[in-house]
Every structure is written in C-alpha cells, then in structure tokens.
Design goal:
The chain is mainly alpha-helical and 268 residues long. It has a domain of 166 residues. The protein is built from nine helices and three strands, in the order H-H-H-H-H-H-E-H-E-E-H-H. A three-stranded antiparallel sheet has the order 2-1-3. The chain binds zinc ion.
Length: 268
C-alpha cells in the first residue's frame, strides 16, 4: 500500500504558511492598525488578500506534479489539504474581521453583538472538485492561485454581509461601498459606488479573475447614516439635498461630488 502523503504535505504547507505570515509586513501592519484603533474593512481586505496570496503561493509550491501520484491532485488528497488550509484562512480572516467590526461598533457607539461569517463550504468544495478533475496538476496551477485568494477575500464580504443584515434588522441603516482596485474594467467601474444595504446590486460581492476590488462597510456614527447612495447620479442634486437636510440638523452640509460619491463610505 502506498504511503499516505497528506500528513507530511500538510505539515510542510502549514509551517511554510506560518513562517511567511509571520514575516509579512502587510499582516504586521494590519495587526498594528487593529491595536491602534485605526483598522477598517479596507484593512481587513488587505489582510485577507495577503493571507490568500501567501496560501496560494505555498499550495502551488507544494502541490506539484512531481510530488504527487500520477502528477494528479486526487480528490482524496485535494479534499483533505484544501479543507484544512482554506478553513485555517477562514479562521484567520474571520477572526480579524470580527475584531474590526467590534472596533467599528465601539467607535460608532453601537452596542450590537458582532456577527461572524459562516464558512462557505460550497466554495471550498468547488475548488476541490475543479482541481481534482484535472489529469495534470501542473497544467492547472491557476486553480490554486486566484480562486484561493478570491475565496479568502470573500470571507471579508461574508462578514460585512452578516453584520449589515444584523444591524439593519436592529433598525440601523447600513451603507456599503464598493471600491475599484487596480486597473478597472468596465464591469468593475459600473459596480463601484455607495449602496443602501436594502438596495444592493446582485453582483456587489462578485469578483472576476484577478479582481481585487473591495467592499467596505463602516457603521460610521451609528444611527445617523450618510444616505447618499449611488442612486443619486447627479452630484448637484445630491449636494442640494445635503444642504437642505443640513439646515434641519444645524450641521455642516456633507460635501458631495462625483469622486467622493464613489469613494467615501459613510460620513462621520
Ligand atoms: Zn474589480
């Protein structure tokens, strides 16, 4: 009977991951941001992308044809390795984002319990099935690359969604922002913007290959939310509305312009 290669592969993958995660400047910076109370969901996105990229690199380095039977990542091997390592990323990222949400809640004076994302087992199964259906792992290395990063980043989205759902059920009015990252295609440009949680586009959490656009949520000042969502495409009209509403509250009107409309999450 052939030797079970999974335990030793897992050991190597885990120790290489831990080593690189520990040395990562981006992960260190994210930890500091949390400690100093400056972390946001943007920081959580950076944290997740970095954790995803480290894992993707380590998986590709160790799950090579030369170290696998028949150059193939058999289902039984893929399942055990990817379940464990992707779940580990889930624990890391969902733990970090829960801390971020706790911080944001405190800053906003919201006494609501933090909601943790649920592990998306379907996505893990999808990667396992896809990669194990291929006869030659070296020809489909990409499956262990972008989909792994994408999975890890989606943990942040799932955390945002769980908390917005909970906070809206508690009577708050969550506003979600999708921001462009890197070279933006038309699809991403069209999707970027500020949205009312009750009126999200279907694709708000979707990413095409190599897309690192971020979804952000900040409860801001708690109950008094900035309600300027992408629905208002006319910045002048939005500014007029802002001025009008500011009269009633005696506050400085919110400054609304095209770029801000697309970039800022919530006003404080
Ligand atoms: Zn994008």
């Amino acid at each position: 009977m052939a030797e079970d290669i999974v335990p030793s592969l897992l050991k190597t993958i885990n120790s290489q991951f831990d080593e690189q995660a520990k040395a990562s400047k981006k992960l260190q910076a994210a930890a500091r941001a949390l400690k100093s109370g400056k972390a946001t969901y943007q920081t959580a996105n950076t944290f997740a992308i970095e954790a995803g990229e480290i894992l993707a690199k380590v998986l590709q380095r160790n799950l090579k044809g030369a170290s696998l039977p028949d150059q193939k990542l058999y289902f039984n091997i893929a399942q055990r390795i990817l379940n464990e390592t992707l779940s580990k990323n889930f624990d890391l990222v969902s733990g970090y984002t829960a801390d971020v949400q706790k911080l944001l809640n405190e800053q906003a004076g919201i006494g609501l319990e933090v909601q943790k994302a649920m592990l998306n087992q379907d996505r893990i199964d999808g990667i396992v099935n896809r990669v194990s259906s291929e006869p030659d792992i070296d020809k489909v290395k990409w499956i262990l690359d972008d989909p792994v990063v994408n999975f890890t980043q989606s943990i942040v989205d799932d955390s945002i969604d769980a908390n917005c759902k909970f906070q809206s059920a508690a009577g708050l009015h969550p506003i979600i922002t999708r921001r462009l990252v890197g070279k933006a295609c038309k699809w991403c440009s069209d999707l970027a913007g500020v949205y009312d949680y009750f009126d999200l586009p279907d694709d708000i959490y979707r990413r095409h290959e190599r897309c690192r656009c971020t979804v952000d949520y900040n409860p801001g000042s708690g109950k008094r939310q900035n309600v300027w969502t992408k629905k208002w495409r006319d910045p002048e009209q939005a500014q007029k509305l802002a001025n009008r509403l500011a009269i009633g509250t005696g506050e400085k009107p919110l400054s609304i312009n095209k770029t801000e409309q697309n970039r800022t999450a919530t006003s404080r």
